[in-house]
Task: inverse folding
């Protein structure tokens, strides 16, 4: 992983963030024309090392073939994995998904990238992907938002609100609670029933001391995040997601969607209750009604929202088909 200084960034709020650093990882070689790049955007607690958390997709001979493409992933502005964020800057200002994209554009320009063959990501990464297609339509040839939205729904804001409140009220214990809440939204009914059901941790324990395995799992996931992520960044990124709205300052969502020139692959997940498939299909339909070249596909999985991180084979097939149909392979 490398870190690049991109200078001062003027934020959507009007504040100026000086001396911004962006951590990134790059795989493959940028060609002389600077036009073989793919940008991977990470989710809430992700980082720039996309070859690790999306290993089925990135590598020689894989759908994001680093023998052909120059694949870049950066830690978002406001993150805590090497990029400038509240962990390293006191009184860190509010940032938005749009600000993250602006910082990524500055990074790519410094790397010599002149256009993106594809920008893609899941969850918060998908919010960035669709914002990219709106913000810089001439720069983006293809866009693949996965389990995402063009503006955050009331349901997603509600979940984020409760997680933010847990952190603000409870310190480390509250941060762990926020992660537990998040994990519930990322999984499905079928997965939890199959994996945990009503199994208890200590079958011989007195009735009043019963601990279910699902409770133990959530406790583990909460404590695990404390060791690898910063609470202030978590708060910052949740707020950025809440503020995500491609239509803000652009005359509304339809006017924003009209700006898109990229071919779009919109991917939903059949068991996702955070970004439900009906929401995904509705955005794809809106693009189609505007005459945009959009394809809608779904992942079928018991893993719920997190299927975009788990179902590598299915997702690779969808992206490969999309690239072939739009001249990217």
Result:
């Amino acid at each position: 992983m490398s870190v690049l200084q991109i200078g001062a960034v003027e934020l959507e709020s009007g504040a100026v963030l000086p001396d911004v650093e962006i951590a990134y990882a790059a795989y493959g070689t940028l060609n002389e024309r600077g036009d073989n790049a793919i940008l991977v955007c990470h989710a809430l607690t992700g980082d720039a090392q996309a070859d690790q958390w999306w290993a089925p997709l990135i590598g020689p001979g894989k759908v994001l073939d680093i023998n052909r493409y120059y694949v870049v992933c950066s830690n978002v502005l406001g993150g805590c994995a090497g990029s400038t964020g509240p962990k390293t800057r006191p009184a860190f200002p509010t940032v938005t998904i749009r600000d993250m994209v602006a910082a990524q554009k500055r990074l790519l320009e410094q790397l010599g990238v002149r256009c993106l063959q594809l920008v893609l990501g899941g969850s918060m990464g998908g919010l960035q992907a669709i914002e990219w297609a709106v913000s810089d339509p001439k720069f983006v040839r293809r866009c693949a938002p996965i389990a995402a939205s063009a503006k955050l729904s009331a349901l997603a804001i509600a979940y984020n609100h409760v997680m933010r409140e847990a952190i603000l009220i409870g310190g480390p214990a509250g941060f762990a609670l926020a992660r537990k809440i998040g994990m519930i939204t990322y999984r499905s009914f079928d997965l939890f029933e199959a994996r945990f059901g009503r199994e208890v941790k200590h079958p011989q324990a007195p009735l009043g001391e019963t601990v279910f395995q699902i409770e133990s799992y959530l406790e583990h996931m909460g404590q695990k995040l404390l060791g690898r992520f910063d609470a202030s960044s978590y708060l910052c990124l949740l707020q950025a997601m809440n503020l995500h709205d491609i239509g803000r300052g652009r005359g509304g969502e339809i006017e924003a969607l009209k700006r898109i020139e990229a071919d779009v692959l919109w991917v939903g997940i059949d068991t996702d209750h955070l970004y439900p498939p009906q929401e995904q299909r509705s955005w794809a339909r809106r693009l189609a009604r505007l005459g945009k070249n959009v394809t809608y596909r779904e992942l079928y999985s018991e893993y719920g929202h997190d299927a975009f991180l788990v179902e590598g084979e299915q997702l690779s097939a969808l992206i490969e088909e999309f690239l072939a149909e739009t001249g990217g392979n």
The mean pLDDT is 95. The domain at 155-238 is CATH 1.10.1740.110 (Rna Polymerase Sigma Factor; Chain: A). The beta strands are 2-10, 16-27, 37-41, 70-74, 116-122, 142-146, 263-269, 294-299. The first helix runs from residue 50 to 53.
